[in-house]
Design brief:
Length: 288
């Protein structure tokens, strides 16, 4: 084996990983990663102090991460990498609802919510009442009965359940469609919020003029037999943060209007004694 020099270390390291990996795909990825990392170091004449600071930063990202706090996902999101991977791997036709990134606050196994009922953890006095209704269909317009919408969002303070310790299920649920593909649930209007800034990603953002805010939105994973699952979320068109989303997740097709209504009868038939909002949102899924 030749000894490493400043001119040969990249080729030596890349070749070792490419040939040494038992999985060819792993070898390919690692060799490419090494070449890009080394090119970055050369292009920017990386100092030993900067390299050490970078390793300390990544260590803090790992230490901050746990089953609820996904600091590495947050880092990927703020670098635009999560959105890039989403866009590359989820090309859909013009008629299909557009996907966007998952985000760091998803919690699986949400409770089932009957048609027209509210997401758990929402009291009458919480936030601005919002009724979300619509239809799930395939690209040919056929309704998808029994499709399941996995929904989650923040509360009126901008907090997700995943940010709380020991919380019961709140502001998340599974909503099934009826025979005609329709669905309906009650929630509260989401609000703009800042990503968690009490960790290393927040420290990094604080060293820039980049906004730490995301525009108000509601998350969905929509699943139906015979169709590709859709991971997306929709954004309140009135948010001033639409064009500065810190994780680059906004897409023009996903900006929606929450329509104001006076106090009265809501879409689910209940009487609401204060103004409320209605979002009519149809989903179109691609076949597998």
């Amino acid at each position: 084996m030749p000894f490493a020099t400043v001119d040969t270390i990249t080729d030596i390291a890349a070749e070792r990983w490419e040939k040494g990996a038992r999985d060819p795909r792993l070898g390919q990825l690692m060799a490419s990663l090494i070449r890009h990392l080394h090119a970055f170091a050369r292009e920017n004449e990386l100092t030993e102090g900067e390299w050490f600071e970078a390793t300390e930063f990544l260590s803090r990202v790992g230490q901050m991460s746990n089953d609820k706090r996904k600091e590495f996902i947050l880092l990927s999101d703020t670098l635009g990498l999560s959105m890039l991977v989403t866009l590359m791997n989820n090309q859909v036709g013009d008629a299909a609802t557009k996907p966007t990134l998952l985000g760091p606050f998803y919690i699986p196994d949400s409770p089932e919510i009957p048609f027209g009922e509210r997401l758990p953890g929402i009291a009458d006095e919480d936030g601005a009442p919002l009724f979300v209704q619509g239809r799930v269909s395939d690209q040919d317009g056929r309704p998808l009965a029994g499709a399941v919408l996995d929904v989650w969002q923040n509360d009126q303070e901008g907090i997700y359940e995943a940010q709380l310790i020991g919380s019961d299920a709140r502001h998340r649920g599974l909503v099934a469609t009826r025979a005609d593909g329709s669905y309906l649930f009650r929630t509260v209007a989401p609000v703009d919020y800042a990503i968690p800034v009490d960790g290393p990603v927040g420290d990094l953002i604080a060293r820039t003029t980049i906004s730490e805010f995301r525009p108000a939105h509601i998350h969905f994973i929509v699943r139906a037999d015979g169709c590709k699952p859709l991971t997306t979320h929709v954004f309140d068109s009135t948010s001033p943060k639409i064009e500065s989303d810190v994780v680059f997740g906004t897409r023009p097709e996903l900006v929606v209007d929450l329509v104001d209504h006076p106090a009265g009868t809501a879409p689910n038939g209940e009487a609401v004694d204060r103004p409320f909002k209605v979002l009519t949102l149809d989903f179109v899924l691609e076949g597998q």
